[in-house]
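Please go through the sequence line and token line underneath and see whether the fold suits the sequence. See right below:
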Amino acid sequence: MQRLLFGGVYGTVLASVLVAALDHDTGPTSPGYDAVWVLLAALASAAAHGYAHAIAHRAPDGTTVTVGTARSVLTEWPLVAAVVPTVALLLGAYAAWWSEGTAIDVALLLNTAALFGWGLWGARAAGRGWASSCRAGGVDMLLGFLIVGANVLIK
């Protein structure tokens, strides 16, 4: 459960930051390129995080380092799964179903709502009441608002 929540929040924040950073104000749009980079960054982050865990624990269960590392990397799938909605929105823009700007705006909105959900779920799983869980979700959602605000200010 802990890795699921960690990966979900980490992947959602990563997708939001990347999609905001890859937003183009000048030049031709390239939502396909952006989608590939969001996905590659998530895969690289998951691999790096899993590898770091494996190195930090150095196979305490008696398995070889290679097997332990592979298992650790594979358990980071929630991080990659959390970027899938953003990648899907960018691929929709690549297919000309909507504009890249629309995909980015919707991704930032969706990811901000998802951060609220991750915070709410994590707090409820920890046994907190609804009011406390909503506050936790609100604090997580502030990360999304900070990213949106930074994106607006930087443009």
